Write the structure tokens for this entry.
Amino acid sequence: MISTPPRRAAGFALVLAAAALGLTGCGKDSGYQTQPYQPTEPTISQASVQELCGILDGQKGTWKALGPKVARVAFTGAMKLWTVNDTVANAAISFNRRIVDTVTIRTCPRVRDATVKVLDVPDLKAALGGF
């Protein structure tokens, strides 16, 4: 089929229109993130921290009777159960394992210190196995 000038001109106009539409997307905001994503640390609620302090306080006698090695395993189990019920706490620990020390120092420092002593670790972060 032989192309006539009007068809050729229409095809050329279509190509120019497509190119013009494509260039209009080249403004300042491309829609793509240009800076690396900076995740924010999840915040554990005060009620959840109080629950954690209660768990630690209630278990420290049992953990003392078990001895430090077995107590650390039991501590990890208790932490897993706590974080199953509080997915924000789970996310916070995954983001920053020190958060357990931070929130317990702020909320229940004596309970935290007694737990650290029973577990025979420098801090609770060190006792978190499997997180």
User: Anything to note?
Assistant: The chain has seven helices and no strands.
